[in-house]
């Protein structure tokens, strides 16, 4: 049997009926047995489901938001299927389940578990639509629930993979199926030992593709994006971007660590360990070369710019006229770990620790509440974190024009600045 191929299609590649038809054409001459297709939620549906959760936790009415999500998906189906197609009944069932789940009690204590249960519907619904349309077009695929093979702990919203159990399920359940049919499944979701839905972190569908590739001993992974490959900056923000034809695993991992949105940060490590190449290609130009990420790629030195928005700068200052010691840092990091908050930038002074984190609902106030008795805490919200790898220092001032810089630091290979519009 030929090596399994993994294709991953993100939200932009299934954002409407035209996009679903385009995905179908990409697969028309590529689909074969021993292929797994991973799809994300359609367009910005994850954001829309998060908005519902935000309204629910605030005891506000979300019925209009819920109705809009249903209408959005049904409109896509009306443009893709005849009116008597079974997909409409399948979607009715999924939205019935979603609304039943939304009737449950939501509190701060169960927010993360509730989040995973609700937000996973984006992937379940989109994968049903795409699988049914492929079959409707004569491209037969098996729809499979990723939660049956991707096993995790119960760390909701940032679940950790049980690699041994996941591999065993993939080999025993999916491998035999793949001898006869391609499989279409969901990104981003898994399940814990109690069969509760978990998610792998925002934008985690890339990671799903990497998990499945190593568990199925795949030959390659291809991520289909709305860009021509991996670029040295986001073309929507920065002009004159350059595409990498090839990237080494280490260089790609460094880019994702600092927040490059083209690939999820956890994707590279399992692929590098298994020596599985990763291709990033454009669904708008599927015949173009894209970018190949593999072991033996040349090292680059061109500046690579990464911009993370919606950042919070928090400073912890000791209050008893002592200096910052290891114990202070340990205390802060213990709380960050318990709240599942990742530090995007850290700077120490004699009397304070300053760090940059992503904005997440409730997380900042929980952090402040846990540490307010030990530190004097100040923070700024709504910031940007600019990271430049292989910086040319004469170009940094141009990037900073029109911004107030709150914090910056530089090493031999990296420049970072926390900033806001002047």
From TrEMBL:
Catalytic activity field: L-aspartate + ATP = 4-phospho-L-aspartate + ADP
Pfam name, any one: AA_kinase
Recorded metabolic or biological pathway in which this protein acts: Amino-acid biosynthesis; L-methionine biosynthesis via de novo pathway; L-homoserine from L-aspartate: step 1/3; Amino-acid biosynthesis; L-lysine biosynthesis via DAP pathway; (S)-tetrahydrodipicolinate from L-aspartate: step 1/4; Amino-acid biosynthesis; L-threonine biosynthesis; L-threonine from L-aspartate: step 1/5
Keyword Zinc-finger appears in the UniProt entry: no
GO cellular component: cytosol
Keyword Cytoplasm: no
Annotated EC: 2.7.2.4
InterPro entries associated with the record: AceGlu_kinase-like_sf (IPR036393), Asp/Glu/Uridylate_kinase (IPR001048), Asp_kinase (IPR001341), AsparK_Bifunc_asparK/hSer_DH (IPR042199)
Keywords: Amino-acid biosynthesis, ATP-binding, Kinase, Nucleotide-binding, Transferase
Annotated Aspartate/glutamate/uridylate kinase domain residues: 3-282
Coiled coil: none
Enzyme class: transferase
One GO MF term attached to the UniProt entry: aspartate kinase activity
Top-level taxon of origin: Bacteria
GO biological process: homoserine biosynthetic process; lysine biosynthetic process via diaminopimelate; threonine biosynthetic process
Homology family: Belongs to the aspartokinase family.
Annotated PANTHER family: ASPARTATE KINASE (PTHR21499), ASPARTOKINASE (PTHR21499:SF59)
The protein's name: Aspartokinase
């Amino acid at each position: 049997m030929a090596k399994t191929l993994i294709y991953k299609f993100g939200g932009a590649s299934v954002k409407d009926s035209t996009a679903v038809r385009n995905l179908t054409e990409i697969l028309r001459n590529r689909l074969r047995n021993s292929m797994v297709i991973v799809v994300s939620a359609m367009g910005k549906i994850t954001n829309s489901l998060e908005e519902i959760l935000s309204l629910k936790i605030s005891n506000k009415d979300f019925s209009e938001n819920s109705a809009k999500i249903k209408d959005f998906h049904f409109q896509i189906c009306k443009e893709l299927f005849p009116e008597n197609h079974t997909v409409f009944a399948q979607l009715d069932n999924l939205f019935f389940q979603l609304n039943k789940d939304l009737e449950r009690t939501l509190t701060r204590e169960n927010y993360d578990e509730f989040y995973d249960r609700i937000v996973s519907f984006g992937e379940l619904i989109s994968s049903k639509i795409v699988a049914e349309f492929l079959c409707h077009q004569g491209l037969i695929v098996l729809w499979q629930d990723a939660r049956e093979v991707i096993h995790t702990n119960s760390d909701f919203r940032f679940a950790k993979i049980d690699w041994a159990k996941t591999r065993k399920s993939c080999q025993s359940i999916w491998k035999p199926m793949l001898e006869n049919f391609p499989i279409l499944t969901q990104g981003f979701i898994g399940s814990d030992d109690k069969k509760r839905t978990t998610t792998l972190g925002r934008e985690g569908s890339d990671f799903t593709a990497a998990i499945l590739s190593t568990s199925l001993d795949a030959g390659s992974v291809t991520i289909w994006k709305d860009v021509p490959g991996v670029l040295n900056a986001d073309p929507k923000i920065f002009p004159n971007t350059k595409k990498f034809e090839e990237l080494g695993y280490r260089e790609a991992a460094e880019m994702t660590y600092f927040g490059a949105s083209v690939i999820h940060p956890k994707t590279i490590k399992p692929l590098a360990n298994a020596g599985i190449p990763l291709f990033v290609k454009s669904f708008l130009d599927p015949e173009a070369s894209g970018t190949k990420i593999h072991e033996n790629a040349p090292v680059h030195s061109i500046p690579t710019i990464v911009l993370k928005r919606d950042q919070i700068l928090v400073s912890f200052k000791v209050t008893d006229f002592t200096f910052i010691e290891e114990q202070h840092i340990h205390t802060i990091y213990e709380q960050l770990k318990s709240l599942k908050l990742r530090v995007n930038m850290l700077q120490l002074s004699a009397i304070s620790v300053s760090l940059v984190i992503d904005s997440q609902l409730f997380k900042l106030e929980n952090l402040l509440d846990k540490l307010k008795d030990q530190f004097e805490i100040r923070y700024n919200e709504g910031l940007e974190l600019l990271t430049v790898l292989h910086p040319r220092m004469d170009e940094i001032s141009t990037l900073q024009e029109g911004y107030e810089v709150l914090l910056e630091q530089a090493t031999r290979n990296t420049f970072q600045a926390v900033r806001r519009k002047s």
